[in-house]
């Protein structure tokens, strides 16, 4: 199947937020495992997009006939209303990370947080970690639940009642 990327215009034929190249970049740069076959990579990316579309996002679709859950209308993050053509950075990286998470769950392996990245020239670089501020965006290698948290109606938090 062909990947048709949502470009913020509310396309009725879109089926992904990112092109396949973003998934292969994620594999090459951070070292995450994904299938070798391109058809399997496409399937994985499209399943991640379908999972994203099934979630309960803030606001509502910007266009009634758009295929994807984003862009959104009336989506507020803290005190800012997002543009009706905006696809959050976190949604794009979240789709890629979710594809990696789906593959790991199917294959039965744990995903290790990367400590290094591999630059296009082949040089390995240490990923810097820190806490520069409370409203900083999560890094692209963060789990999908972290990427999606601010945009979901319910942040995935659960009340735990004492026994």
Can you characterise this structure?
With about 160 residues, the protein is of the alpha+beta class. The chain has one domain (about 20-125, about 135-150). It has helices at about 20-30, 40-55, 90-105, 145-150, and strands at about 60, 70-75, 75, 80, 115-120, 125. A hairpin with a 2-residue loop joins strand 3 and strand 4 (about 80). Helix 2 packs across helix 3.
Short note summarizing the structure:
The protein has 163 residues and is α+β, with helices and mostly antiparallel strands. Helices cover 31% and strands 9% of the residues.
* Order of helical and strand elements: HHEEEEHEEH
Compute the average pLDDT. Answer: 90
Structural class, judged by helices and strands? Answer: alpha+beta
Instruction: Assign a percent range to the helix content.
Output: 25-40%
Spans of at least 5 consecutive residues whose pLDDT stays below 50 are 156-161
Percent of sequence in beta strands: 5-15%
């Amino acid at each position: 199947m062909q990947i048709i990327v949502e470009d913020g215009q509310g396309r009725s034929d879109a089926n992904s937020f990112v092109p396949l190249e973003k998934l292969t970049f994620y594999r090459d740069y951070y070292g995450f495992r994904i299938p070798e076959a391109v058809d399997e990579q496409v399937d994985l990316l499209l399943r991640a997009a379908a999972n994203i579309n099934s979630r309960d996002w803030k606001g509502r679709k910007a266009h009634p006939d758009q295929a994807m859950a984003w862009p959104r209308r009336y989506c507020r993050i803290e005190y800012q209303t997002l543009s009706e053509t905006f696809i959050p950075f976190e949604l794009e990286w979240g789709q890629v990370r979710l594809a990696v998470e789906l593959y790991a769950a199917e294959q039965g392996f744990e995903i290790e947080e990367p400590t290094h990245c591999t630059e296009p020239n082949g040089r390995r670089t240490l990923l810097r970690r820190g806490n520069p501020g409370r409203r900083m965006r999560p890094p692209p290698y963060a789990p999908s639940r972290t990427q999606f948290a601010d945009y979901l109606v319910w942040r995935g938090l659960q009340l735990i009642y004492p026994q």
